Amino acid sequence: MNFETILFSIDAGIARLTLNRPERLNAFNERMHTEVAEALGRIETDGGVRVLLLTGSGRAFCAGQDLSERDVNAGPLDLGRTTAMYYNPLVRRLAGLKCPVVCAVNGVAAGAGVNIALACDLVLARRSAKFIQAFSAIGLIPDAGGTWVLPHLIGQARALGFTLTGGTLSSAQAEQWGLIWRAVEDEAFDAEVENLTAQLANAPTQGLGAAKRAIRGAWSATLEQQLALESQLQHDCGLTLDYKEGVNAFKARRTPRFQGR
Ligand code: LHQ
Predict the structure, then answer these.
(1) In order of start, what are the domains of the chain with their CATH numbers?
(2) Is 112 exposed, middle or buried (0-12, 13-18, 19+ CB in 10 A)?
Protein backbone atom coordinates (compact mmCIF):
# COMPACT_ATOMS: atom_id res chain seq x y z
CA MET A 1 0.00 0.00 0.00
CA ASN A 2 1.28 3.48 -0.91
CA PHE A 3 0.79 5.76 2.03
CA GLU A 4 -0.76 9.18 1.36
CA THR A 5 -1.71 10.32 4.82
CA ILE A 6 1.07 8.95 7.02
CA LEU A 7 4.83 8.58 6.96
CA PHE A 8 5.97 5.13 8.06
CA SER A 9 9.27 3.35 8.46
CA ILE A 10 10.82 0.51 10.41
CA ASP A 11 14.56 0.75 10.98
CA ALA A 12 16.90 -0.68 13.64
CA GLY A 13 14.00 -1.84 15.78
CA ILE A 14 12.25 1.54 15.69
CA ALA A 15 8.90 1.93 13.93
CA ARG A 16 8.07 5.56 13.17
CA LEU A 17 4.49 6.49 12.32
CA THR A 18 3.82 10.16 11.58
CA LEU A 19 0.29 11.42 10.92
CA ASN A 20 0.80 13.49 7.81
CA ARG A 21 -2.10 15.73 6.83
CA PRO A 22 -0.66 18.96 8.23
CA GLU A 23 -3.08 21.15 6.24
CA ARG A 24 -5.94 19.52 8.26
CA LEU A 25 -3.90 19.43 11.48
CA ASN A 26 -3.51 15.67 10.92
CA ALA A 27 -7.24 15.02 11.41
CA PHE A 28 -8.31 11.44 10.73
CA ASN A 29 -10.21 10.60 7.56
CA GLU A 30 -10.98 7.06 6.43
CA ARG A 31 -7.84 6.84 4.35
CA MET A 32 -5.69 7.71 7.35
CA HIS A 33 -7.45 5.09 9.47
CA THR A 34 -6.81 2.47 6.80
CA GLU A 35 -3.17 3.43 6.45
CA VAL A 36 -2.52 3.52 10.20
CA ALA A 37 -4.17 0.08 10.47
CA GLU A 38 -1.91 -1.23 7.70
CA ALA A 39 1.19 0.18 9.44
CA LEU A 40 0.18 -1.36 12.77
CA GLY A 41 -0.31 -4.68 11.01
CA ARG A 42 3.25 -4.49 9.70
CA ILE A 43 4.56 -3.75 13.19
CA GLU A 44 2.59 -6.63 14.69
CA THR A 45 3.96 -9.12 12.17
CA ASP A 46 7.50 -7.77 11.90
CA GLY A 47 8.89 -9.39 15.04
CA GLY A 48 11.88 -7.03 15.12
CA VAL A 49 10.12 -3.85 16.20
CA ARG A 50 11.17 -2.85 19.72
CA VAL A 51 9.45 0.53 20.00
CA LEU A 52 6.82 2.51 18.10
CA LEU A 53 7.08 6.29 17.90
CA LEU A 54 3.79 8.00 16.98
CA THR A 55 3.79 11.71 16.17
CA GLY A 56 2.34 14.29 13.79
CA SER A 57 3.81 16.46 11.07
CA GLY A 58 3.59 20.23 11.04
CA ARG A 59 2.28 22.29 13.95
CA ALA A 60 -0.29 19.80 15.28
CA PHE A 61 -0.32 16.29 16.63
CA CYS A 62 -3.90 15.48 15.60
CA ALA A 63 -7.20 17.40 15.51
CA GLY A 64 -9.31 14.24 15.88
CA GLN A 65 -11.93 13.30 13.33
CA ASP A 66 -11.84 15.18 10.02
CA LEU A 67 -14.97 17.32 10.19
CA SER A 68 -14.67 18.67 6.66
CA GLU A 69 -15.40 15.51 4.72
CA ARG A 70 -18.87 14.72 5.97
CA ASP A 71 -22.07 16.56 5.19
CA VAL A 72 -24.02 16.62 8.43
CA ASN A 73 -26.95 18.19 6.57
CA ALA A 74 -27.34 15.35 4.08
CA GLY A 75 -28.99 12.97 6.55
CA PRO A 76 -28.14 11.21 9.80
CA LEU A 77 -24.57 9.95 10.17
CA ASP A 78 -23.81 6.78 12.10
CA LEU A 79 -20.95 7.93 14.30
CA GLY A 80 -21.20 4.73 16.37
CA ARG A 81 -20.19 2.84 13.25
CA THR A 82 -17.19 5.13 12.76
CA THR A 83 -15.97 4.56 16.31
CA ALA A 84 -16.56 0.80 16.16
CA MET A 85 -14.90 0.43 12.76
CA TYR A 86 -11.94 2.74 13.18
CA TYR A 87 -11.24 4.35 16.55
CA ASN A 88 -11.92 1.38 18.83
CA PRO A 89 -9.63 -1.03 16.96
CA LEU A 90 -6.92 1.65 16.80
CA VAL A 91 -6.99 2.21 20.58
CA ARG A 92 -7.03 -1.56 21.25
CA ARG A 93 -4.07 -2.13 18.98
CA LEU A 94 -1.94 0.70 20.41
CA ALA A 95 -2.64 -0.47 23.96
CA GLY A 96 -2.05 -4.11 23.04
CA LEU A 97 1.19 -3.80 21.06
CA LYS A 98 3.87 -5.98 22.60
CA CYS A 99 6.50 -3.25 22.40
CA PRO A 100 6.36 0.14 24.13
CA VAL A 101 4.58 2.93 22.25
CA VAL A 102 5.89 6.48 22.60
CA CYS A 103 3.61 9.32 21.58
CA ALA A 104 5.37 12.60 20.80
CA VAL A 105 2.68 15.26 20.98
CA ASN A 106 4.42 17.84 18.82
CA GLY A 107 1.55 20.36 18.86
CA VAL A 108 -2.15 20.67 19.53
CA ALA A 109 -4.14 17.48 20.18
CA ALA A 110 -7.92 17.83 19.96
CA GLY A 111 -10.91 15.50 20.21
CA ALA A 112 -10.00 11.92 19.37
CA GLY A 113 -6.43 13.16 18.88
CA VAL A 114 -6.12 13.54 22.66
CA ASN A 115 -7.39 10.06 23.37
CA ILE A 116 -5.28 8.40 20.70
CA ALA A 117 -2.23 9.96 22.38
CA LEU A 118 -3.46 8.68 25.75
CA ALA A 119 -3.75 5.14 24.36
CA CYS A 120 0.05 5.14 24.03
CA ASP A 121 2.39 4.06 26.82
CA LEU A 122 4.63 7.09 27.22
CA VAL A 123 3.34 10.49 26.17
CA LEU A 124 5.81 13.33 25.78
CA ALA A 125 4.45 16.71 24.77
CA ARG A 126 6.07 19.94 23.67
CA ARG A 127 5.72 22.62 26.32
CA SER A 128 3.73 24.68 23.76
CA ALA A 129 1.34 21.82 22.89
CA LYS A 130 -2.23 21.83 24.14
CA PHE A 131 -4.84 19.16 24.82
CA ILE A 132 -8.39 20.14 23.90
CA GLN A 133 -11.53 18.16 24.68
CA ALA A 134 -13.21 19.43 21.53
CA PHE A 135 -16.11 16.98 21.71
CA SER A 136 -18.44 19.04 23.86
CA ALA A 137 -18.23 21.96 21.42
CA ILE A 138 -19.93 19.81 18.75
CA GLY A 139 -22.35 17.86 20.96
CA LEU A 140 -20.34 14.63 21.21
CA ILE A 141 -18.72 12.63 23.98
CA PRO A 142 -15.03 11.77 24.31
CA ASP A 143 -14.52 8.62 22.27
CA ALA A 144 -11.43 6.61 21.34
CA GLY A 145 -11.35 5.42 24.95
CA GLY A 146 -11.51 8.92 26.42
CA THR A 147 -14.28 8.26 28.92
CA TRP A 148 -12.28 5.33 30.25
CA VAL A 149 -8.77 6.68 30.29
CA LEU A 150 -9.55 10.16 31.66
CA PRO A 151 -11.12 9.17 35.00
CA HIS A 152 -8.49 6.47 35.45
CA LEU A 153 -5.61 8.88 34.91
CA ILE A 154 -6.84 12.13 36.44
CA GLY A 155 -9.91 11.17 38.53
CA GLN A 156 -13.59 11.89 38.03
CA ALA A 157 -13.57 15.56 39.09
CA ARG A 158 -10.88 16.56 36.63
CA ALA A 159 -12.17 14.24 33.90
CA LEU A 160 -15.63 15.80 34.11
CA GLY A 161 -14.29 19.34 34.39
CA PHE A 162 -11.98 18.89 31.42
CA THR A 163 -14.70 17.24 29.31
CA LEU A 164 -17.82 19.22 30.14
CA THR A 165 -16.15 22.60 29.78
CA GLY A 166 -14.47 21.55 26.52
CA GLY A 167 -11.39 22.75 28.31
CA THR A 168 -7.90 23.31 27.05
CA LEU A 169 -5.05 21.85 29.05
CA SER A 170 -1.47 22.99 28.67
CA SER A 171 1.08 20.21 28.47
CA ALA A 172 2.56 21.40 31.78
CA GLN A 173 -0.85 21.01 33.44
CA ALA A 174 -1.33 17.63 31.74
CA GLU A 175 1.97 16.47 33.23
CA GLN A 176 1.08 17.84 36.66
CA TRP A 177 -2.25 16.00 36.60
CA GLY A 178 -0.63 12.73 35.55
CA LEU A 179 -2.33 12.71 32.15
CA ILE A 180 1.00 12.45 30.34
CA TRP A 181 4.51 11.30 31.19
CA ARG A 182 6.36 14.56 30.53
CA ALA A 183 6.10 18.08 29.11
CA VAL A 184 9.39 19.05 27.48
CA GLU A 185 10.72 22.46 26.52
CA ASP A 186 10.21 23.02 22.79
CA GLU A 187 13.94 23.35 22.03
CA ALA A 188 14.75 20.08 23.81
CA PHE A 189 11.71 18.14 22.57
CA ASP A 190 13.05 16.41 19.44
CA ALA A 191 16.27 15.32 21.17
CA GLU A 192 14.41 14.01 24.20
CA VAL A 193 11.99 12.04 22.02
CA GLU A 194 14.92 10.51 20.10
CA ASN A 195 16.80 9.65 23.31
CA LEU A 196 13.80 7.96 24.84
CA THR A 197 13.03 6.06 21.64
CA ALA A 198 16.65 4.89 21.31
CA GLN A 199 16.70 3.83 24.96
CA LEU A 200 13.57 1.74 24.48
CA ALA A 201 14.84 0.26 21.20
CA ASN A 202 17.83 -1.13 23.10
CA ALA A 203 15.91 -2.31 26.16
CA PRO A 204 14.75 -5.84 27.05
CA THR A 205 11.62 -5.67 24.88
CA GLN A 206 9.93 -8.79 26.26
CA GLY A 207 10.27 -7.52 29.80
CA LEU A 208 8.93 -4.08 28.91
CA GLY A 209 6.05 -5.64 27.00
CA ALA A 210 5.18 -7.82 29.98
CA ALA A 211 5.36 -4.84 32.36
CA LYS A 212 3.08 -2.87 30.05
CA ARG A 213 0.59 -5.73 29.94
CA ALA A 214 0.60 -6.13 33.72
CA ILE A 215 0.23 -2.43 34.50
CA ARG A 216 -2.51 -1.95 31.92
CA GLY A 217 -4.25 -5.10 33.19
CA ALA A 218 -4.16 -3.87 36.78
CA TRP A 219 -7.06 -1.47 36.19
CA SER A 220 -9.56 -4.30 36.02
CA ALA A 221 -7.90 -6.85 38.31
CA THR A 222 -7.96 -7.75 42.00
CA LEU A 223 -4.69 -8.00 43.94
CA GLU A 224 -4.94 -11.80 43.78
CA GLN A 225 -5.40 -11.76 40.01
CA GLN A 226 -2.55 -9.32 39.65
CA LEU A 227 -0.19 -11.42 41.78
CA ALA A 228 -1.03 -14.45 39.64
CA LEU A 229 -0.43 -12.49 36.44
CA GLU A 230 2.90 -11.22 37.76
CA SER A 231 4.03 -14.78 38.54
CA GLN A 232 3.08 -15.92 35.05
CA LEU A 233 4.77 -12.99 33.33
CA GLN A 234 7.86 -13.17 35.53
CA HIS A 235 8.13 -16.84 34.62
CA ASP A 236 8.10 -15.90 30.94
CA CYS A 237 10.59 -13.05 31.42
CA GLY A 238 12.93 -15.39 33.30
CA LEU A 239 13.21 -17.53 30.16
CA THR A 240 14.35 -14.67 27.91
CA LEU A 241 17.89 -14.17 26.64
CA ASP A 242 17.68 -10.59 27.86
CA TYR A 243 17.19 -11.68 31.47
CA LYS A 244 20.32 -13.82 31.21
CA GLU A 245 22.20 -10.97 29.56
CA GLY A 246 21.05 -8.46 32.18
CA VAL A 247 22.24 -10.60 35.08
CA ASN A 248 25.54 -11.53 33.38
CA ALA A 249 26.23 -7.88 32.56
CA PHE A 250 25.45 -6.87 36.14
CA LYS A 251 27.87 -9.45 37.52
CA ALA A 252 30.58 -8.52 35.02
CA ARG A 253 30.01 -4.80 35.68
CA ARG A 254 29.49 -4.10 31.98
CA THR A 255 26.72 -2.50 29.93
CA PRO A 256 24.15 -5.10 28.85
CA ARG A 257 23.50 -5.73 25.16
CA PHE A 258 19.83 -6.60 24.99
CA GLN A 259 18.41 -8.22 21.87
CA GLY A 260 14.72 -8.01 22.64
CA ARG A 261 14.52 -11.78 22.88
C1 LHQ B 1 -9.62 20.60 10.49
C2 LHQ B 1 -9.84 19.99 11.73
C3 LHQ B 1 -10.68 18.85 11.79
C4 LHQ B 1 -10.94 19.04 9.48
C5 LHQ B 1 -8.58 21.68 12.04
N6 LHQ B 1 -11.19 18.42 10.62
N7 LHQ B 1 -10.17 20.13 9.37
C8 LHQ B 1 -15.15 10.35 16.26
C9 LHQ B 1 -16.04 9.56 15.52
C10 LHQ B 1 -16.91 10.01 14.60
C11 LHQ B 1 -17.20 11.21 14.34
C12 LHQ B 1 -16.95 12.34 15.05
O13 LHQ B 1 -15.90 12.52 15.88
C14 LHQ B 1 -15.11 11.65 16.47
C15 LHQ B 1 -14.14 12.15 17.36
C16 LHQ B 1 -13.63 13.53 17.25
O17 LHQ B 1 -12.46 13.68 17.13
S18 LHQ B 1 -14.74 14.82 17.37
C19 LHQ B 1 -13.70 16.21 17.49
C20 LHQ B 1 -13.17 16.63 16.15
N21 LHQ B 1 -12.20 17.68 16.29
C22 LHQ B 1 -12.49 18.94 16.58
O23 LHQ B 1 -13.61 19.31 16.84
C24 LHQ B 1 -11.34 19.91 16.54
C25 LHQ B 1 -11.56 20.92 15.45
N26 LHQ B 1 -10.43 21.83 15.34
C27 LHQ B 1 -10.24 22.85 16.17
O28 LHQ B 1 -10.97 23.08 17.10
C29 LHQ B 1 -9.08 23.74 15.87
O30 LHQ B 1 -8.69 23.54 14.54
C31 LHQ B 1 -7.87 23.50 16.80
C32 LHQ B 1 -8.23 24.03 18.20
C33 LHQ B 1 -7.47 22.04 16.86
C34 LHQ B 1 -6.67 24.32 16.28
O35 LHQ B 1 -7.05 25.66 16.09
P36 LHQ B 1 -6.13 26.64 15.23
O37 LHQ B 1 -4.74 26.51 15.68
O38 LHQ B 1 -6.77 27.98 15.30
O39 LHQ B 1 -6.18 26.08 13.74
P40 LHQ B 1 -7.39 26.21 12.68
O41 LHQ B 1 -8.69 25.98 13.34
O42 LHQ B 1 -7.22 27.46 11.88
O43 LHQ B 1 -7.10 24.91 11.75
C44 LHQ B 1 -6.14 24.94 10.69
C45 LHQ B 1 -6.73 24.21 9.51
O46 LHQ B 1 -6.99 22.85 9.91
C47 LHQ B 1 -8.07 24.80 9.12
O48 LHQ B 1 -8.21 24.68 7.74
P49 LHQ B 1 -8.06 25.97 6.76
O50 LHQ B 1 -8.31 25.43 5.37
O51 LHQ B 1 -9.06 26.97 7.21
O52 LHQ B 1 -6.65 26.46 6.97
C53 LHQ B 1 -9.06 23.89 9.81
O54 LHQ B 1 -10.32 23.85 9.17
C55 LHQ B 1 -8.36 22.56 9.69
N56 LHQ B 1 -8.83 21.64 10.72
N57 LHQ B 1 -9.19 20.70 12.67
N58 LHQ B 1 -10.93 18.19 12.93
Answers:
(1) 6-201 (3.90.226.10), 205-252 (1.10.12)
(2) buried
